[in-house]
Specification:
By secondary structure, the protein is α/β, with parallel strands linked by helices. The protein is built from 15 helices and twelve strands. It is 45% helix and 15% strand. The strands form three sheets. It has a five-stranded parallel β-sheet with strand order 2-1-3-4-5, sandwiched between helices. Strands 6-7-8-9 form a four-stranded mixed β-sheet. A three-stranded mixed β-sheet has the order 10-11-12.
Length: 340
Amino acid sequence: MAIPSTGPKTPPTTAPTKAAETNAQGDVAAARRVLDHARAGLDALGGSLGAGFVAALDILSRVTGRAIVSGMGKSGHVGRKIAATLASTGTPAFFVHAAEASHGDLGMIAPGDAVLALSNSGETPELADLISYTRRYGIPLIAVTSRERSALAEAADALLLLPNVGEACPLGLAPTTSTTLMIALGDAIAVALLERRGFTADNYKVFHPGGQLGRKLYKVRDLMHAGGEMPLVGPATPMSEVVLVMTQKTFGVAGVVDGNGRLVGIVTDGDLRRHIGGDLFRHAAGDIMTKTPKTTGSNVLAAEAVRRMNEWKITSVFVVENQKPVGIIRMHDILRAGAI
């Protein structure tokens, strides 16, 4: 008699039920509704920008201290992100929690600063002391709110009014569209200030030295070998010495410079192979070299240098300024630094 198995049973595979399909369709429809709501809100926000936005930029561009961002709840979380974005793009900034401000953190705000306060209703009670403090000490106040007649809006020196498009939440309660608009507006402020100041990739790298982003901003000058590390010879240098220089410097190439220090050619491993034979060492570098070699500048992004080396089918390139070599860089140096 067979003994029935007591192990776990694998449920039979069945096609999705109609109820499950209906739920899935409802889920996707809800998500699309949220995104459509956000899209409409962003379009309305973009169309509403004008004098208030310019006034806010004027205030922030004149700040000699810091841009102080503040808010409560979800607006506070958005404020932290805005402060971080401002700080990383050339506008010194930090976040002050609206509630903590009333318990000593107002001391973080000083003349020369400006305050960017976020509140969808404009009536957040915890912002009251912060608003009063800015008025008392003449600290510029920028309001981000959806209510033009709110306490925050009426106290502000510059008003960034969010379009009143309502929340995507079907209950109309959870901050959704409003926080999306605040984040987008914060990004718009940061980028507009960045462009006003002529903020460059070099400036950006100063604030992002770590991580992949910082590495992608490496310039050739950051990674090149300079000075005595460069394999350089003169046109009259015997090939026996050129080979020694190439062997010692390990770049697989030697640069040939004239009496004025200008790079006039290079000798590569390929040149050696093409001239191999009994008379190779009877020649000088100037006889063997490849004239008008490929070069790069020191201010070129390392990733761009790799692209050029791939295009030229070479693995190292001299870095030249005013026709004179100032360094040499290998593809291996760039790859090892993680610059691409």
